[in-house]
Write the structure tokens for this entry.
Amino acid sequence: MDVYVGRNRSHWCLHRDLLCYHTPYFQEQSLGEGKQENGKIELLEEDPQAFELLVKWLYQGRIDDVSDMPLERKWDYADACQKLYVLCDKIDMPQLKNTAIDQFRKGCYEAGLVPGPEEIKPIYDTTPPTSPMRKLVSQIAARQIMDPESGSDASTYRMCFEASADFAIDVVNAIRQGSGPKLFHDPTEGNGCCYHEHGTSQLCKVG
């Protein structure tokens, strides 16, 4: 079966039986009315590096462990595993999804880096509301927002908030769960000058 991946149409010639054994997606795409002809499958929106990891898993039963890689390669590999997760979600390969998310988490931790809005937005664009990857990246974003040493705040994720109400809800819920039962000060109580349109050094003429 010929598979073309990514915008540059990277070409793979793979065993049809092996592909169809692991997921019905390829059989559905290659057979039936309106499907791809001549055994050709196009995955032009997917990442070639992620597909290469999928092929490795199909033929070898495993992908590389990020812990065995030098530091300078860890983040790139974690990013590829994130894209592999999205691909596996599309073609219904739950076992490899679990491996991909584990390698992604480990890679982030060992590289000391986390996904930014550019990496998070495609996850919310392509995965269902119940996706464990959504849960993971929204918790990462919530932690970055709450961490005074991260250099991030809510505006860092503006593109994600604007694109997905689900992301906004998930982040707020993650912050609530992570902050525990402590409640911040009641904004309707006490001096209200912080809500007035005057400088902090100016005399308040209200009241």
Notes: The longest strand covers residues 2-5. The beta strands are 2-5, 10-13, 40-43.
